[in-house]
Structure formats: structure tokens, C-alpha cells
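fwd from M.: "can u put these together and see what the complex looks like"

so here's what she sent:
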Amino acid sequence: MPYRVALGGLHTECSTYNPLFQQRADFRRLEGQALLDKAGFDYGAHGIAAIPLFHESSVPGGPVARDVFDAQAAELLQALRDALPLDGVHLLLHGAMFVPGVIDPEGWLITQVRDIVGPGCVIAGSFDLHGQITQDITDTLDIFAAYRTAPHIDVTETHARAAAMLTRALTKGLRPQVARVPVPVLVSGEMSSTFVAPCDRLYASLPQFDRRAGVWDANLMIGYVWADSPRATAAAVVTCLDPAAGAQVAQEIADSYWQARHELVFDMQAMPLADAQPLLDQPLVLADSGDNPTGGGVGDRAEVLAALQQSGTKALFAGIAGPKAYAELEQGAKTVTIGGELGGGGPKVVLDVDQCRFAHDCAIVESAGLTVVISKYRRPFHNFSDFKALGLSLSDHPILVVKSGYLSPDIRTLDRRQIMLLTDGAVNQDITRQQNLNRPRPCFPFQ
Ligand SMILES: [Zn+2]
């Protein structure tokens, strides 16, 4: 009988400052071969029968509505029961879900999984390094692996690391465990990019820890700064066969992050919008960071668009979520009002429509030298393929505005000055100004 391993999970990141609750329709579901491909590991080649349950992920946003999470979890747990008996479970998670009334959604889910599969089953979890990792999570899991790059370019490799450890545990009859040391530091992803110091060297050191005797996989979790949650924390998390060696390595990683906390700075030039306005006469990439949907922002705010319009600058603004404006444009409207349509706040901007065309649920509006992409749904435009799909050539537009924090690996390669705008919104970089009622205290840089 081959070993049997079930795969599944829930994956999103939730800003508690985003007023828009995530609904089931916001999640994209993977099943069958697509889910096996996501795991990036050929379980079959190791004599393991991989059983895909399902995986649901969304563009980060506001809290997940309680009934949505309850339904997703119930469905996933029922699929797990239907897949019994199991030797292993591979959970593909993010770690920064926020659900009202559930303090530790991933921890709760993992303990439910454990209750179903029993103590003999090996449970592996792969996570985003922006996940909030509690003691419940590490006590219940046998195997833990998280991304080692931000921006994340090692997603598939991370799932494969967890899968390889799970395979090793099953085929060699080994039972690893997970050590955790929390670190009272919470900064944004933009301040902890692995492209720059100190996180470049901290993450580069992790593979060396993997080679220590008794240690399998070393991780540094930055945590998620825009959730005012009691579980918000950074942590060092280590999968190990020898608990003493695992605890030692976790402590070393935690100490090195704590000691580097004053080095944590933005990975690119950053300034308020007003300071960038005199620079609009040159080629630029501007990242509207406070409203970045991939960080949990709403993606509907228009203050940067208003500034461009006021200055009369030609630019490509990609994009802004506006389902109502999109519908009006479909009806042939010659003027639309955009900004804060989904509850994200900020100013409203009136666009006179010179031309409008449609592609992939987006309206591409030409208005007095501005090209504005108005999307029917919340979404990012971070990859060259996103622009190509809309028939937009970046070389035609010396100024590009994206709703982004740190720039994607694609946009980073554009040879023009790149500035992160410190704009307002649900993922505002001025984090110590955000309401902070529930995070553990003290925590750098809040206290
Ligand atoms: Zn992340």
C-alpha cells in the first residue's frame, strides 16, 4: 500500500484597516491536477498517493467574513474526512487570515485537521513569510516551511520543500517537530524586502542553518503588520528532528532579526505624494503604496490620479477598482467619477472620456493625456503580462503609476526613477499611526 497524503488549504492576507470583507466569490479555487501542480512536487515518484482536496486563495483584502471562513473550513474538513485513512497532510496556507471572532484562524484549522487525522499522521504546512505563526500552529504541525524571498519568487519551491520533508518523514519513518521563538518586531513587507539589507543577509543565512545536525528547515517569519490582532508577531520557526538543535537555531535566527531591527528601512526611495509632484516632468514609476491590493489595500483610492490630473501630466495609471464606473462606461458614459467606490476613502475624480475600450474586465480610458485602467474587480497590475493582456505598451508611457508596495520583479527592471509614494489607505506605511488596540506589547516599532 502506498502512503496516502492529502493536499489543500486556504490562502489570504487580511488588513483590519480595509472595510471591505472578503466573500466566497473573492476566492479562486484549485482542485485536482491544478492543485497538485501548485504543490510543485511529484509525490507519485516517491510511492506516495497524493489526494488533492481543494485550495482557495484570494487577492489580499479585508477580513474574511465569518460565515465565509466557517463554510470554507467545514468543506475542507469534510473533504479531509472523506479522504481517510491518511498517512500525511500537506496544508498550503498563508498565515495572515483575519476572521472576526477567530483569533488564530490557521491555528484553529490545523488543530481541527489534527483531530480528524489523529496523532499518527504527519502534517506539513507551507506558508507565506508574512504569516502570523502562533504556538498552536507550531505545536500541531510536524513540518513547517515558508517563503524565503519577498517579493515572493520562491512560492513553488517552498511548497516543494514542505513536500520533500513530508516524504522524508513518511518513507524513513521519522517524526520531526517544529520549534518557534517569537520576535516582538512588526514592520511592513517594504521594510523587510529580501532584496536589501538586513533581510537579504538574514534570509541568505537560512540554508546554512538547514545543514545543522538535527535541523531540517529554518524560517524567519516577518508577520503581517496591518492586522491589529493579538497574534501579530514575527517569529523564527524551525523544523527539526532534534528539539534542542531546533530551539537553538530558532533562538539564533530570532536574535539576529531583533538585533537588525534598526536597519529595517524601505527597499526603495519613498516620499509623500506632495514631494513627488515636482518630479512629474521625468520618466517615473510611482507605487501608490497605501492602497496596494496585494498588501490588503482596497485598490479604489484616487488621490494619485487627482494629482496627475491637476498637474496635466501624461501617465498610465493602472489601475483602480470601480465596478460602478466600469458599468457606466459599458453603457457608453462620456464622463465617469472614480475614487473610493468600494469604501477605501480618498477623493473623487471626474474623468472626461476621450476614448474607452474594454479588455479582461477592465475599461481602458483615455482622458486628457491620462490612460486610466478601471477594473471591474479589485486586482493588481504588477506583471508585464498584465499590461500586455490589455494591449498596453509601457514604453508608450514615461510615467507609470501602480498600486503596489515594493515593486514586482518585472516592474523593478524598468529603467526609470522608481518612487514609493507614502499614500493613505488600508495598508498605509505610517504604521505607528494606525489604531493599535490588540497587538502584543511591547512591540517594535509601536512601543
Ligand atoms: Zn507575503
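replying to her w this: The chain has two domains: 3-263, 269-428.
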